[in-house]
Amino acid sequence: MENVRLNVALLRRKVPNLTSAAKLVGLRPATVSNLCTGKIPVGRAEVKTIIALAELAECSLDELILRGEKVEMIETKIKAIDLFAPLTKGGVNGLIARPGMGQLVLLAELFYRLKREGMVTILLTPEGNHPEVEDILNNMDYVVNTTAEVYDKVMEIGSNKEIAFASDRGHVANGNIQELQEKLESVGVSAVTTFLLDLSGEVVDENLPYGPLETVWEFDADLAARHKFPAVNPIYSTSSVLEGAHLDQQHLTIQQKAQKLLRRYRELRSLVQVRGSEKLPESEHTTFNRGERLEAYLTQPFYVAETFSGITGVDVQLQTTLEDVRKILDGVYDSVEVDKFNYIGAVK
């Protein structure tokens, strides 16, 4: 199938209030979001949906649909992210969480890793009083107060360096990020990978809280409550990189099988908590046990948390993650105790 995707940058620029606009023309915001991230491939979308989006953006279908352009992922060596919702290079990546779910720790870890790989990191100071942001400042090359300063810093850095930029949702709501992106695009700057978070925690209750995104990391309250970090929901987190034409077929196959297993495991876990595991059929025991091991394997020690956890941070290459997950799915580790998978890197 032809490699096609939505022009998310164009939608961000042309339809800043996409949630309201989509509802007015009869589109579900969730559908629009899933098309932007690739969870719903453009080729499977209803024609009327694509036409409605083109009309909203006041553009042609050729402008809205990009053909033959590959979406690049940045390998973070964080298992849960690389497997389920890869970081989109040069895209806009949103974190959806309530306070206490670990989004700032994940952002700090990502910036630590990106900075280590040579990227320049910039934080736009959030509006209001947010002392918790102090925890991520060590991994920022520059902390600025306005989008104008961000623009000046990006232009000063030039095109020789990739840039990772983070902003709180407050700057999205007031239109500042929209204006910044338009300004950067007008001078041909495309090397900025953007991270949007919401320190208020209100973002989880809204559709398209940041507008169109290339990657969505949705955090899971149950995982956070059980201290399974990073608490990134493996079912609802997604990325435009996951479109079949953009991703290695082996990765896509393993990712889909892992999601299917974890989806069923979560259902069974609710039953086990109420009725006990002895009520499960034998075939479901196998699913439950493998899901339990996979969930534990997806936890990972972070470098930025070493002082608090006492565990040294680890990198896991994507191919290693895929091989380990494949073996868990195939039952190779059925006899290994679940606790052996908690907060490890690769399976040894």
UniProtKB/TrEMBL annotation:
Q: Which domain of life is it from?
A: Bacteria
CDD domains found in the cross-reference section? HTH_XRE
Instruction: Identify the keywords attached in UniProt to this record, alphabetized.
Output: ATP synthesis, ATP-binding, CF(1), Ion transport, Membrane, Nucleotide-binding, Translocase, Transport
Q: Where is the ATP synthase A/B type C-terminal domain?
A: 246-312
Q: Carries keyword ATP-binding? A: yes
PANTHER family xref list: ATP SYNTHASE, ATP SYNTHASE SUBUNIT BETA, MITOCHONDRIAL
State the family named in the UniProt similarity comment for this chain. Belongs to the ATPase alpha/beta chains family.
- Protein name stated in the entry: ATP synthase subunit beta
Q: Which organism is it from?
A: Sutcliffiella rhizosphaerae
